[in-house]
Amino acid sequence: MANQAKPFRYTISALLCMTAMLFAGNATAEEPLPKVLVETSLGSFEVTLRPDIAPETVSNFRQYVADDYYDGLIFHRVIPGFMVQGGGFDPDLRPQRTRKPVVNEAKPTAKNLRGTIAMARTQDPDSATSQFFINLVDNSFLDAGARGPGYAVFGKVTDGMGVVDAIASKPTGQQRGMANVPNEPIMIRNITLLP
């Protein structure tokens, strides 16, 4: 009788081992968050995107990146102690043609903290297209629920925030009826999806 119980005990042990291997496989199968490299005339910085909190916004941004849309555009609105904004104008401040707007995915839990990247928009919450901004400080008044629908955070600068601070330090003025425009164009040379 003791000999008959042994094969059963080994089978249970093998099943437990296989189950543990399956669970371990699932834990490592999660895809890493996508990253982009933003190359500017003042240096480069890296942004980690968050499709887990703003899937449509990230998909929209990635499509613009894939289309090389941002190459040669500028940071056209720079306000120290607040944010830097780009992705909509060329160096002559000509607005660029965009695709249709995306729905506002702002959430109270995705906060506009220093270093986060969010979508710029008009008074219409669902009007964001290509323009984005990077928060230079914690801007809680831009969070969903603070003063309305909020601004959709879809990533964070995870390397090179000093470059963003350098952009913010440049002198600005009024040009073509627009305020806070850098006196010397700050170019977005290229945005590429990192492997």
List the helices and strands and how they pair.
Elements lengths: L1 H27 L6 E6 L2 E7 L5 H12 L6 E7 L3 E4 L29 E4 L12 E4 L17 E7 L1 H8 L3 E4 L2 E5 L4 E7 L2
Antiparallel strand pairs: 1-2, 1-10, 2-7, 3-4, 3-10, 4-6, 5-6, 5-7, 8-9
Low-confidence stretches: 5-10, 12-28
Shape: globular
How far apart the termini lie comes to 59 Å
Note the total helix count.
Answer: 3
* Major sheet attributes: 8 strands, antiparallel, barrel
The number of distinct structural domains comes to 2
Mean residue pLDDT = 90
CATH C-level category of the largest domain: Mainly Beta
Our Rg estimate from Cα atoms comes to: 23 Å
Derived structural class: alpha+beta
What is the CATH topology assignment of the largest domain?
Answer: Cyclophilin
As a percent range, the share of helical residues equals: 10-25%
Q: What is the element string, with H for helices and E for strands? A: HEEHEEEEEHEEE
Can you identify the CATH superfamily of the largest domain? Answer: Cyclophilin-like
Total number of β-strand segments?
10
Strand content: 25-35%
The appropriate CATH architecture of the largest domain is Beta Barrel
Neighbour order of strands in the largest sheet: 1-2-7-5-6-4-3-10
